[in-house]
Write a structure and sequence with these properties.
With 132 residues, the chain is an all-beta fold. It has no helices and ten strands. Strand 9 and strand 10 form a beta hairpin.
Length: 132
């Protein structure tokens, strides 16, 4: 069975030209927004995913969920996974669109493969505090 080995929210992912390694830069799990409900961050973010035990070509999906209300806010298109061997780690960097954040609280990125739940990454949205 396919395993979601890593899921990381970050500012960018790039491939080092000398080593071929994927470099994950600027990891975070909290987003600060202005006065809600107008707090929509205008930032470019990337979701880094690593899978193992990919034994056949398969499709996976990502949902962005408002955990407090159990409401799916975004459903990402289906992505295809392919590995030459089940012992190979498949790494992906998925650029994210602007995320809808209707209020402060917990949100999650839920990952599914062929409709089977693989894992989740929780993040927290907090409201910016006014300077005193």
């Amino acid at each position: 069975m396919i395993v979601l080995q890593s899921i990381i929210l970050c500012d960018c992912v790039y491939v080092d030209a000398d080593t071929g390694k994927m470099v994950i830069a600027g990891t975070f799990h909290e987003i600060t927004v202005g006065e809600t409900p107008t707090g929509y961050p205008e930032r470019a973010a990337v979701l880094y995913l690593a899978f193992r035990d990919v034994r056949k070509d398969c499709s996976f999906e990502i949902e962005f969920v408002d955990v407090a209300n159990n409401k799916t806010l975004l459903h990402f298109e289906t992505f295809k996974l392919h590995a030459a061997s089940p012992f190979e780690t498949v790494e992906l960097a998925v650029p994210l669109p602007e995320l809808p954040l209707p209020q402060p609280g917990p949100y999650s990125f839920d990952v599914f493969c062929e409709q089977a739940f693989l894992g989740t990454l929780r993040i927290k949205v907090v409201e910016e505090k006014e300077a005193e």
